[in-house]
């Protein structure tokens, strides 16, 4: 056959697969119709093979490894978030416990101080006994009685 004539042998020689016409297409018109509709299928299948185990260049095994790694990362992230929440709860509880303990320990000291201020105020007939921020006692006259309160507490 002449070169360039478009013969079947010429197409197969260039790497284009020629589809096999089924025996049910026994007349030339049905064989031509089959060839027209199926000619490129073979070429595309051989030129661009698709593997059900590869999607976008990633194998099934690689995909499963990535899924497992992602699941591990998500589990570790949740675990870290849970630990952080537990740490926050522990910190908050510890702070509350510390505050309660401080209040418990300071209550007798504050009561003793308050009693000493009341005693000095009553003995001296004072109008008010003040610290820099709080009114602690009301009476008739005003004077700095810090030294007297210290003496009442036994502090030099």
Mean pLDDT: 79
Residue windows where pLDDT falls under 50 for at least 5 positions: 1-8
Question: Helix coverage percent of residues?
Answer: 55-70%
The strand order across the widest sheet is 1-2
Number of contiguous helices:
4
Order of secondary-structure elements: HHEEHEEH
N- to C-terminal separation? 127 Å
Number of strands: 4
Helix-and-strand structural type: mainly alpha
Rg measurement, Å: 48 Å
Beta-strand percentage range:
5-15%
Structure, explained:
The chain has 4 helices and 4 strands; from the N terminus they run H-H-E-E-H-E-E-H. The chain has a two-stranded antiparallel sheet. A two-stranded antiparallel sheet has the order 3-4. The protein starts with 7 loop residues before the first helix and ends with a helix. Strand 3 (126-130) and strand 4 (135-140) form a beta hairpin. The protein has 156 residues and is mainly α. It is rod-shaped and about 130 Å long. It has helices at 8-13, 28-47, 60-124, 146-153; strands at residues 54-55, 58-59, 126-130, 135-140. Mean pLDDT is 79; it is low at 1-8. Helices cover 63% and strands 10% of the residues.
């Amino acid at each position: 056959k002449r070169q360039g004539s478009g013969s079947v042998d010429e197409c197969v020689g260039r790497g284009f697969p020629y589809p096999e016409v089924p025996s049910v297409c026994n007349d030339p018109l049905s064989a031509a119709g089959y060839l027209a509709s199926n000619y490129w299928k073979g070429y595309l299948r051989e030129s661009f093979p698709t593997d059900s185990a590869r999607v976008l260049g990633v194998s099934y095994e690689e995909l499963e490894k990535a899924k497992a790694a992602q699941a591990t990362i998500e589990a570790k992230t949740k675990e870290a978030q849970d630990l952080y929440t537990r740490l926050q709860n522990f910190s908050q509880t510890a702070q509350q416990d510390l505050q309660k303990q401080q209040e418990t320990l300071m209550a007798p000291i504050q009561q003793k101080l308050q009693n000493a201020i009341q005693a000095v105020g009553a003995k001296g007939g004072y109008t008010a006994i003040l610290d820099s921020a709080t009114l602690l006692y009301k009476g008739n006259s005003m004077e700095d009685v810090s030294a007297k309160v210290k003496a009442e507490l036994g502090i030099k």
